[in-house]
């Protein structure tokens, strides 16, 4: 029997977790079991959920008593798409008390419906021709209300700072001043101009927004205008929309998944969906080439163990699809680069908005400060030593800290 699995964490001071596990396995598959006549049971057997593990943690105070329960759900019960899987394993039960979905397991059959990221970590590096260091991404800031000239100016300053990628802020939607095709056209030209000075390639992830029914055409218009990457607010649309876009052969550019709304689902230890599932397993399965998430060190933080669990899922060999690039974000400044590399290694995008635009010497200097920090960290040179020769980095360390 081919099945997908779901592991839940249930907190309860008194529950019989084995009994609870059985009720979940039956309740989310055949509905009832012991009352069924034998003939009906034989017919329904192939649909019956199976309890695989119940790992009870008793050695804690009543308030902390919990169990991790893993249940197998027969593939025959649901279609091979993420909505069907999520409703099957965590639809009704997500509303039934203190239960959190902490891990998914995909059958070969289910996985085969997902081509995964088109580019992945290696493909992104090939697009940029950068192979031996972390990548650097900057973020447009205060863009709402800017016209095309002002947008081009901010883009150019970021590009001249030597960044590898530039992304729209996730709150930049279609608008009369900077519609996507025009935004892409002027930024593509500005990237070409900047490249004459920096000698570097650059990906610009423009925010794909608007009604779901128009997203594909919107993406094709952007690509026709010169877009070489897309940003997408996945959770406000749903994973299946990302799956649709990433698996479409006409959409020939990498997709960066923004975590907007994720905070409604992952933080509680007792409810919701763990970050490693929400921003790790499902984003990669649905085809995100890069995945942003709150870092452990910035302004909007996520615990370090959850960050590393996301990273593990984005690069895990458990899935036979390409890997997704981890992008720990929010409140990142050059002084954090050593700890980012320590936690994530080389396959990471250092991503910053305020940490670049807020540099006292200007936006371009902000980019240079990050590149100097990345060069120092990749050669195990303390930032404070390296900064003696680089005023942009020294200025960043003076105002934001780091050593
Ligand atoms: C986790 C997403 C981070 C994000 O969207 C963003 O705009 C970060 O900006 P800064 O915190 O680097 O200014
Ligand atoms: Mg943002």
Descriptive notes:
The chain is an alpha/beta fold. The protein has 2 domains: 3-111, Alpha-Beta Plaits; 120-400, Alpha-Beta Barrel (TIM Barrel). It is built from 17 helices and 13 strands. The protein has helices spanning 17-27, 38-44, 82-90, 108-111, 120-128, 148-160, 180-198, 215-224, 234-237, 239-246, 275-285, 304-315, 337-344, 354-357, 363-378, 383-386, 391-400, and strands at residues 3-11, 50-57, 66-74, 99-105, 135-139, 165-167, 203-207, 229-233, 255-258, 272-273, 290-294, 325-329, 349-352. It has an 8-stranded parallel beta sheet with strand order 12-11-9-8-7-6-5-13, with helices on both faces. The protein has a 5-stranded mixed beta sheet with strand order 2-3-1-4-10. Strand 6, helix 7 (180-198) and strand 7 (203-207) form a beta-alpha-beta unit. Helix 6 (148-160) runs parallel beside helix 7, helix 6 (148-160) packs parallel to helix 15 and helix 11 runs parallel beside helix 12. The chain is globular and about 75 Å long. One of its GO terms (biological process) is carbon fixation. One of its GO terms (molecular function) is 2,3-diketo-5-methylthiopentyl-1-phosphate enolase activity. Residues 7-104 form the Ribulose bisphosphate carboxylase large subunit ferrodoxin-like N-terminal domain. Residues 120-400 form the Ribulose bisphosphate carboxylase large subunit C-terminal domain. Its EC number is 5.3.2.5.
């Amino acid at each position: 029997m081919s099945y997908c699995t779901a592991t839940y964490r249930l907190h309860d001071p008194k529950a019989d977790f084995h009994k609870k596990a059985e009720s979940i396995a039956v309740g989310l598959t055949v509905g009832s079991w012991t009352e069924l006549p034998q003939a009906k049971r034989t017919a329904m057997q192939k649909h019956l959920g199976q309890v695989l593990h119940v790992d009870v943690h008793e050695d804690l105070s009543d308030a902390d008593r919990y169990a991790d329960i893993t249940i197998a759900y027969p593939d025959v019960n649901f279609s091979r798409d993420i909505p069907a899987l999520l409703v099957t394993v965590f639809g009704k039960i997500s509303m039934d008390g203190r239960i959190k979905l902490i891990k998914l397991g995909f059958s070969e059959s289910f996985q085969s419906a997902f081509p995964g990221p088109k580019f992945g970590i290696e493909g992104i590096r090939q697009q940029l021709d950068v192979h031996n260091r972390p990548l650097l991404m900057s973020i447009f800031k205060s863009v709402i209300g800017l016209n095309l000239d002002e947008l081009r100016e901010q883009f150019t300053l970021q590009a001249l700072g030597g960044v590898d990628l530039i992304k729209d802020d996730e709150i930049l939607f279609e608008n009369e001043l900077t519609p996507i095709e025009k935004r892409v056209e002027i930024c593509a030209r500005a990237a070409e101009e900047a490249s004459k000075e920096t000698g570097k390639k650059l990906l610009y992830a423009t925010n794909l927004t608007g009604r779901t029914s128009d997203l594909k055409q919107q993406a094709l218009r952007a690509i026709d205008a010169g877009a070489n990457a897309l940003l997408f607010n996945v959770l406000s649309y749903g994973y299946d929309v990302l799956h649709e876009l990433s698996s479409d052969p006409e959409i020939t550019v990498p997709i960066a998944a923004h975590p907007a709304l994720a905070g409604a689902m992952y933080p509680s230890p007792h409810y919701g969906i763990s970050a490693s599932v929400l921003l790790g397993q499902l984003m990669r399965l649905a085809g995100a080439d890069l995945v942003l998430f709150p870092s452990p060190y910035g302004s909007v933080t996520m615990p370090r163990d959850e960050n590393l669990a996301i990273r593990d899922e984005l690069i895990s060999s458990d899935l036979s699809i390409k890997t997704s690039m981890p992008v720990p974000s929010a409140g990142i400044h050059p002084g954090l680069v050593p700890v980012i590399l320590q936690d994530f290694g080389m396959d990471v995008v250092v991503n910053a908005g305020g940490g670049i635009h807020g540099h006292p010497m200007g936006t371009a200097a902000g980019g240079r400060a990050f590149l100097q920090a990345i060069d120092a960290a990749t050669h195990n040179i303390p930032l404070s030593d390296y900064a003696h020769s680089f005023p942009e980095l020294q200025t960043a360390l003076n105002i934001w800290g780091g050593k």
